[in-house]
Each structure stands twice: as C-alpha cells, then as structure tokens.
C-alpha cells in the first residue's frame, strides 16, 4: 500500500497510522517481526528516514519493540495487574477468561536465610520451600517468580507442588489456609542475564520487581515472593477509595 505523497499529512504520520491499522487488523501479529527497513520502504513507497521516524514513534507509543541484533517486533498487549490484588496468577488468569500456564524452573527445600526467616517469622536455618516458576500471559513469559514458603505453617508442602498450577489452591486444599492480605514493595530494576533468558527479553531491559508477603486470616505469613515483570508487558493499576468518616 503506497502512501499519499500529495497529502498535507507528513508521510511518517501516514506510515504510523497505516502500520497501526495493519497491526490492529492482524496483518502483523503480536510477537511477529516486522519486515526490514528496505522492505518497508518498498511496501509503503517511502524513504528509510520516514520508516525510521515512524518506527521510533511506534516504539515510544508501545506498539512496537526493538531487540538489539534481532529487529523490530509487534508488542504483545500489556497485561493489567491490580497492584493491591491478593489473588495468585492462576486466579488472575481465570478472572481474565484465560487458561493459566506456568513453567516450573526448580523447587526444593532450603535453609532459610536470616532475611527470609524474619519475613516468615521462623528461626534462621529453618527448612523452607523455594519455588521458581515462569508465569505466562497469552503464551508470553510475563513473570519470573521466586517464592519461599514456611514449612512450619505448611509441612511437607514440597510433596504437593510438582504439578501444581495454583499454589493458593494447593494450600487451601491441603492445609485449609487462604491468603487474605498481602504487602507489596514495587521497584524498577534492570534484567540480568538469567532474568533476560527466562523472560525472553534483553539484558538491561527495565523490569518491575515486586516484593510480596502474603498472610492468612490470623496474620501469619504464608510466603514471600520476588516477582519480576518486563515493564513493557504489564501495567499495574491501583483501585482505591476514600472512606467516609
């Protein structure tokens, strides 16, 4: 589709609009690599300068993403995650009408380091379950999760998690324990090589790091988690209200 060179609208704006329409129509699908610059020039009848300007603008708008040495890709739609939500990933995906998908990286018993023991209100060196998983959204890695569970509260939990999709459902079923409250700390970090590999992103790419502690109705800490999200794949929302006195 050639652009209108006689229009008063600048060509890079026309190209932005056309590429956006093509993405919305499915000409270019989420995760798909765009044609190289020279091919885009031929397809739309514009110069490389015009193509570069339009692409840069669409990257800034969040519709495209550039990967060093790989090319330009159509961005996956961002997941919207309520920051104050207590539910787990499986429950969140079910609410979205999607089938939850996880990949277990590792799990096993470890001696609790002092900081984790303090969070979980247990003695240092006590046995805890460490669980590392990748959580997916539309087959795209959304979260790298590193969690620690108190075996004083949840003895032999390691026997139930191998094929578990929902840790909260597992805990409720076997221990009658339900998370009702959590505390979260949100920071921005940059992906190291291991995080980039698991999240299919570039080293140095911005990540949201959420430090989370979940509690039951008796205010007992159930688990602590470190959750890493590529910043270009998730939007955190906050739903709050002012109480009337």
Characterize the structure shown:
GO terms for molecular function: DNA binding; DNA-binding transcription factor activity. One of its GO terms (biological process) is negative regulation of DNA-templated transcription. This is GntR family transcriptional regulator. Keywords: DNA-binding, Transcription, Transcription regulation. Pfam families: GntR (PF00392), UTRA (PF07702). The protein is an alpha+beta fold. It has two domains: 11-74, Arc Repressor Mutant, subunit A; 79-237, Chorismate lyase (3-Layer(aba) Sandwich), CATH 3.40.1410. 27% of the residues lie in helices and 32% in strands. The protein contains seven helices and ten strands. The strands form three sheets. It has a six-stranded antiparallel β-sheet. Strands 1-2 form a two-stranded antiparallel ribbon. α1 packs across α3 (48-61) and α2 (37-44) crosses α3. The longest helix has 15 residues, at 11-25. The mean pLDDT is 87.
């Amino acid at each position: 589709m050639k652009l209108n060179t006689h229009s008063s609208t600048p060509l890079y704006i026309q190209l932005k609009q056309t590429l956006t329409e093509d993405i919305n129509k499915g000409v270019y699908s989420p995760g798909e690599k765009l044609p190289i610059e020279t091919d885009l020039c031929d397809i739309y009848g514009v110069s490389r300068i015009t193509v570069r300007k339009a692409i840069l603008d669409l990257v800034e708008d969040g519709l495209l993403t550039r990967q060093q040495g790989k090319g330009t890709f159509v961005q996956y739609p961002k997941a919207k995650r309520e920051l104050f939500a207590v539910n787990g990933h499986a429950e969140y995906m079910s609410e979205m009408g999607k089938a939850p998908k996880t990949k277990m990286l590792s799990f096993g018993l470890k001696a609790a380091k002092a900081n984790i023991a303090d969070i979980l209100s247990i003695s240092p060196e006590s046995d805890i379950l460490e669980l590392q998983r990748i959580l997916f959204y539309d087959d795209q890695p959304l979260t790298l999760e590193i969690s620690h569970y108190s075996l004083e509260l949840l003895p032999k939990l390691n026997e139930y998690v191998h094929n578990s999709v929902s840790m909260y459902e597992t805990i409720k079923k076997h221990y009658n324990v339900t998370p009702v409250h959590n505390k979260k700390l949100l920071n921005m970090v940059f992906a190291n090589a291991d995080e980039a590999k698991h999240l299919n992103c570039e080293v140095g790419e911005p990540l949201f790091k959420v430090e989370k502690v979940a509690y039951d109705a008796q205010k007992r800490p159930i688990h602590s988690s470190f959750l890493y999200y590529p910043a270009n794949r998730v939007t955190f929302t906050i739903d709050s209200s002012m109480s009337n006195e």
